[in-house]
Write a structure and sequence with these properties.
The protein is mainly β. The protein is built from no helices and 42 strands. It has an 18-stranded parallel beta sheet that branches. Strands 3-6-9-12-15-18-21-24-27-30-32-34-37-40 form a 14-stranded parallel beta sheet, with no helix packed on it. A ten-stranded parallel beta sheet has the order 1-4-7-10-13-16-19-22-25-28, with no helix packed on it. The N and C termini lie far apart (69 Å). The model is unreliable at 192-197, 211-215 and 225-230 (pLDDT under 50).
């Protein structure tokens, strides 16, 4: 098709592969088993849209409204989305959260959303953007610009970031539901100008692994929450500094190398080694709420304020689990 517009309840059935040069999609369904390739410009406007076959977008994509469902249940064995030409997603006109959601029938493959190497996807706007029920493969870059990326990959779904995820201008990365598993062999980093807080929320039993050579560079990280939330897990292979870390509930921080936490609010959870943990003299730390479990050496050079929750020093993975207080401590037992 040199040009094709699909909207409302329209349906396109294609037994053989179909190429669309310029595609305006404001609702309706794409069916297989033939793949659909867009070689030119794609405009996704208002209305819910459903792809029951593989969709390859080789040209630039502009997505301003309407959810997308990848549904693996029809004549096509898969319903994957491949972005090769870059994408600009703006959620402002959506009126609420925008969702890219996967659904699959028994015996069908889990839908895959992939961003090719050298390709950039930028998400911005007044509302959040949610990935749900898909495999998320980022070989290029995924930029979250001033909005929230909600990663909700349940039911065996997972994410692999070989490229990078960038949180820019106060962009946020959130895992409100669990379990989630995202492995980063590339970079998960922030670009912050001014006094903008960046939140990486692992409060929903999320699991993020930053492999050797990866980068986990965030200004503010929240793990867990009020006891007895299940919490999340963050694994770090290389030495790292957190500007601000809040950790609570059943959250777990695994680090193979030394970790420095400049401002540390420890509401509960576990610190596990073998990498040591240091709170520098220029920082601060407060402990409260729930039991704290330390499975590695911890040196606190800053003043410590401890108002609640027991502390367990447990020698397991690490050679030692020692606590060194160099900055003084105030312990108040009135609020256990």
């Amino acid at each position: 098709f040199p040009s094709l517009t699909i909207g409302g309840g329209a349906r396109l059935f294609n037994v053989e592969p179909v190429v669309i040069e310029d595609f305006v999609w404001s609702g309706g369904r794409l069916y297989g088993p033939g793949d659909v390739t867009v070689s030119g410009l794609s405009l996704w406007l208002g209305g819910s849209r459903y792809s029951h076959t593989d969709l390859v977008v080789d040209g630039p994509l502009v997505w301003t409204a309407g959810d997308l469902w990848l549904v693996s249940d029809g004549a096509s064995p898969t319903a994957d989305l491949t972005l090769n030409g870059g994408a600009v997603i703006d959620t402002t006109d959506q009126g609420g959260p925008m969702t890219l959601r996967g659904s699959w029938a028994a015996g069908r493959a889990l839908p895959v959303v992939s961003v090719a190497e050298g390709t950039s996807v930028s998400v911005s706007g007044a509302h959040s953007f949610e990935l749900s029920g898909v495999q998320w493969l980022v070989d290029g870059s995924w930029v979250v610009d001033g909005t929230t990326l909600v990663v909700n990959l349940q039911s065996g779904a997972y994410g692999t970031v070989a490229g990078e995820v960038v949180l820019a201008n106060g962009g946020q990365w959130s895992h409100p539901h669990g379990p989630v598993s995202v492995t980063s062999t590339g970079a998960l980093r922030t670009e912050v100008s001014g006094d903008v807080s960046v939140l990486v929320d692992l409060s929903g039993s999320a699991s993020v692994t930053v492999a050797t050579g990866g980068v986990y560079d965030v200004a503010v990280t929240t793990m867990g929450g009020a006891w007895p939330r299940t919490g999340g897990a963050l694994s770090i292979a290389d030495a790292h500094t957190f500007a601000d870390l809040t950790m609570g509930g059943g959250a777990q921080l695994f680090k193979a190398a030394p970790v420095t936490i400049e401002d540390f609010s420890w509401l509960g959870g576990r610190l596990q080694g073998p990498g040591d943990v240091t709170v520098p003299a220029t920082g601060s730390t407060s402990w409260s709420t729930a039991p704290h479990y330390l499975h590695t050496d911890m040196t606190v050079d800053a003043p410590l304020e401890w108002t609640g929750g027991d502390l367990w020093l447990t020698v397991e993975e690490s050679v030692a689990a020692d606590l060194t207080l160099n900055g003084g401590a105030v312990i108040d037992t009135d609020t256990p």
